[in-house]
Amino acid sequence: MPRILTIEDDAVTERTVVPTLASTGFTVDVARSGREGIAMVMAGDYDVVALERRLPDLDGLTIVTTMRGVGIETPVIVMSSTTGVEERIQGLRAGCDDYLTRPFSIDEMSARVEALVRRRTRPATTETVLRVGPLELDLVKRRLSCRDKVLRLRPTELRVLEFMMRHAGQVLTRTMIFEGVWGGRFDPGTNLVDVHVGRLRNRVDTPGQPSLIRTIRGSGYLLG
């Protein structure tokens, strides 16, 4: 049974989120402060962490950066009352996998958590190395090399690139990328796909050479 950790100091939210996740078949643990949450993340093997951005004792993103810093790649969904684009980008750059702004539907949150669990527990493929042009992605070592250089990518960036490499030569819409990587229904108002594709370009492109990931105007993106 999947295990979910919620890090939330708001009792009202806890009373709605925990029963909803539990009714879906998850085992739900609750931390009511950031420091308690970090301790539970380090001690437990969770499938997803759902946390509040503004905790009374620390910024929720501190938990995310701490996790990523010690190699914990458990998917993280952040809940926040701030709707600014810059804050969402900050969260993604810190290493979170999804971002929900209040007010949000509890059912939507549950669906997003389910999607993160599915990606974490998806069956292993027999293909362990993907190659497209100068790109080589080792799925076991989670390592990308391009033109004899090893490039460091965040976990979500790796998943976006893996999806695009598996569909190399195919024009991928934002909806296809979002649903293939994040799961759930695509929200036209989100810029998650554009942010991650832009960051991938900054990593893999070489000055003076054509971009490996092309924008197909009015359609989406094309790798290869």
From TrEMBL:
Superkingdom of source: Bacteria
What the entry lists under SMART domains is as follows: REC, Trans_reg_C
InterPro entries given in the database record: CheY-like_superfamily, OmpR/PhoB-type_DNA-bd, Sig_transdc_resp-reg_receiver, WalR-like, WH-like_DNA-bd_sf
The record's Pfam families line, in alphabetical order, gives: Response_reg, Trans_reg_C
**Which key words are in the record?**
DNA-binding, Phosphoprotein, Transcription, Transcription regulation, Two-component regulatory system
The cross-references to CDD domains, in alphabetical order and at most eight, read: trans_reg_C (cd00383)
Specify whether Transcription regulation is a keyword of the entry: yes
Name listed for the protein in its UniProt record: Response regulator transcription factor
Give one GO biological process term. regulation of DNA-templated transcription
User: Residue ranges of the OmpR/PhoB-type domain?
Assistant: 127-224
Response regulatory domain boundaries: 3-117
